[in-house]
Amino acid sequence: KTQKSTRKPSSRHPLSDSERRKRFFTSLCAQIDGGHFTNALKTCGKILRLYPNDTDALQTMLFLLLQTEQYTSALHHLDSMAGDHDFERAYTLYRLQREVDAQQLLNSMNGRDQHRGTVHLEAQLSYRQGSFDEALNFYNRLLDTADPQTEEHSDVLTNLQASQQHADFISSGYLKALDRLPLAIVATLENAPPAFQTKYTSPLLATPSLALPTKPKGTKVRMSRVPADITPGVSPAPDPERWLKKSERSNYAGAKRRRGGATQGS
Q1: d(CA 115, CA 178)
Q2: Contact predicate 53/21, CB 8 Å
Q3: CB burial class (10 A; 0-12, 13-18, 19+) of residue 79?
Q4: How far apart are CA 109 and CA 107, in angstroms?
Q5: CA geometry: angle at 104 spanning 102 and 109, to 5°?
Q6: Among the four 74, 134, 140, 149, which has the fewest Cβ within 10 Å?
Q7: Rounded distance, CA 82 to CA 150, Å?
Q8: How far apart are alpha carbons 14 and 176 in whole angstroms?
Q9: What CA–CA distances, in Å, run from 231 to 53, 117, 221, 242?
Q10: What digits encode the pLDDT tens for the residues 87-131?
Q11: Where is this region: Disordered (predicted)?
Q12: Are 87 and 108 in contact (CB under 8 A)?
């Protein structure tokens, strides 16, 4: 006889979607606080499967994608979000090295959403595009209003010094570098003709007429094939039948007859 199970059926009812959402958000907060962003992304996805239009979950998903440097996915995620997210989109474009698109988007904001993050992004875009004077202006604005005891103040000061060094080199630093060169090198640089400007052509797309001329190949001198231990005229000459099979050599028949004439022992 089979024993009947003594386990009582569970009396708990399945959780409702709202209760599951609450539990997911509790786990999500703990994962973010612990820096477990990969697991937090999975939990956030579970919430969005229950409530695809949950504003908090959508915003948290964007934050997590940016934290994990998944900028292409973040850009696609922004397309599914309602509302104005021009700053977040501009920042994502900047991280994707699409500086022109990011700058155009910031210019189109026309003073909207001008918080400190926007000024930071303007400064970084100016620095990356080589506009070091503009970057200096933005970083000076940020430095004047930053708390000296914060990490932001230290970061702004570092970026300000880097922008200042680049701006100084472009305006006068290169002249000082030239002054430190030997006079002979300076004279050579000043007397050298300007470089001929040529258009770059990819090697894979180059036409035969643009191919570089090749140097004519010289006639190679054939090296001697005489072995190092052989002295011509002194060492014995090699066997002229060495290229023939042993059965075809003249001494093979005589050797065979000698072997055939031998008598076997009793």
Answers
A1: 43
A2: no
A3: exposed
A4: 5
A5: 95
A6: 149
A7: 33
A8: 77
A9: 95, 87, 21, 19
A10: 999 999 999 999 999 999 998 886 666 788 999 999 999 999 989
A11: 215-266
A12: no
Position 145 pLDDT exceeds 60:
yes
Q: Are 94 and 121 in contact (CB under 8 A)?
A: yes
Helices (H), the chain: 17-33, 37-50, 55-67, 71-79, 86-95, 99-108, 116-128, 132-145, 151-168, 174-179, 183-191, 250-261
- The position carrying tokens 């993050």 is 117
b/e burial code for range 227-255 (CB count within 10 A of at least 16 → b): eeeeeeeeeeeeeeeeeeeeeeeeeeeee
Q: Report whether 241 contacts 250 (CB < 8 A).
A: yes
- What type of residue sits at position 241? E
Which candidate, 160, 158, 180, places its Cα nearest to that of 168? 160
Supply 47's token pair: 């919430």
Structure tokens at 48: 């969005």
Q: What angle do CA 29, 35, 36 make, to 5 degrees?
A: 80
Instruction: Provide the CB-side half-sphere exposure for 208 (13 A, CA).
Output: 0
Token representation of residue 29: 């907060």
Which domains does the chain show, CATH number per domain?
16-78 (1.25.40.10), 84-191 (1.25.40.10)
